[in-house]
Design goal:
Blueprint lengths: L2 H29 L9 H12 L3 H20 L1 H20 L12 H21 L7 H12 L3 H19 L2 H23 L4 E7 L3 H11 L5 E6 L6 E9 L4 H11 L4 E7 L14 H18 L5
Antiparallel strand pairs: 1-3, 1-4, 2-3
Helix pairs in contact: 1-4, 1-5, 2-3, 3-4, 5-8, 6-7, 7-8, 9-10
Length: 309
């Protein structure tokens, strides 16, 4: 393993630990004091905890053992190792921070459901962004999807539904309803954090002034622009289409540039997630450096071809 790979793995495990810590704070500060449940294996562990006082983290490890074995047999060693790391770290921190249950920050069931769900969602999202997971029903859902082509979300929802209904039967309807709120908030925040809170924007621009717009964007917004070949559906005329991915804060600058050259330009701006590559997840040279390099290559090519390009 190279030094760079070691650094990336170290950062990744720190990220998993941080995510697990935030999840456990949500559990011990809000969810458990309010007698609420969560989805998945941890929800089952909480039911047993409320009835017997058995440590939630220890239960989580025990209940996940067959699931970890299943992950290894079906998806291989690498996936199983990531699942083991996420599950063990979460379980250990959950029991280590259990003393926070006695703090009783708020007695309001709705506040506990919302803030517990928010913290759990943020924590799980951070773990998922590190390409790890915490075992439980996610693995079961993935296995069912692989062998039976049943949607993973459907499987997890049905299992969580059974857990929540158990809560209503064993405890009371208010706690079951608050649990539903908490599970929903957790799911929403998990998806948002996993995809990235500050999503980039993808922009399509159709305009006769595409050349000028492209040049201005590259010079002043410092984003790469791609030309796409298009044809109008009515008159069948050729159209130049620009495609660009920018950060949210750069959208207004792109709009101003387009408006300057063509007030009638057709433009689509849409949310984009999981953007990778130069300029986003990889370092990118400046526009000036890239242009200088291109001009140098053109000059060298011209010399080799005797002035014909």
């Amino acid at each position: 393993m190279t030094k760079n790979e070691l650094r990336k793995q170290t950062v990744r495990y720190i990220q998993i630990t941080l995510g697990a810590l935030i999840v456990c704070l949500g559990f011990n500060l809000f969810i458990i004091p309010a007698h609420l449940l969560t989805g998945g294996i941890s929800g089952i562990a909480l039911i047993i905890y409320y009835l017997t006082d058995l440590p939630v983290g220890m239960q989580n490890i025990v209940y996940n053992l067959p699931i970890l074995y299943l992950a290894y047999k079906v998806f291989g060693r690498l996936y199983a190792w990531d699942t083991v790391v996420g599950t063990v770290v979460l379980s250990l921190i959950l029991d280590a921070t259990h003393f926070l249950v006695d703090w009783n920050i708020t007695q309001d069931g709705m506040l506990n459901a919302i803030f517990g769900g928010v913290m759990a969602g943020i924590g799980f999202g951070i773990i998922f962004r590190a390409n790890a997971n915490t075992g439980g029903l996610d693995v079961v859902g993935a296995v069912v999807k692989k062998f039976y082509s049943v949607d993973m979300g459907t499987v997890i929802f049905l299992m969580n539904f059974i857990i929540v209904m158990s809560s209503a039967w064993m405890f009371n309807i208010d706690e079951a309803l608050y649990t539903l709120v908490s599970i929903y908030v957790t799911a929403e925040l998990t998806n948002r954090v996993a995809a990235g809170l500050n999503r980039e924007k993808s922009i399509f621009i159709v305009s006769p002034a595409a050349e000028q717009i492209c040049q201005d964007i590259m010079e002043n917004v410092h984003r790469g622009v791609t030309f796409l070949e298009g044809k109008g559906g009515f008159a069948q005329e050729h159209k130049d289409i620009l495609f660009i991915v920018v950060r949210l804060t750069q959208v207004s600058r792109v709009k101003a540039i387009v408006d300057h050259y063509d007030r009638q330009a057709f433009m689509i701006v849409s949310d984009t997630s999981e953007v990778s590559g130069k300029g986003f997840t990889l370092e990118c040279e400046t526009y000036e450096d890239a242009r200088a390099k291109w001009q140098e290559e053109q000059k060298r090519h011209k010399e080799l071809t005797g002035g014909h390009i």
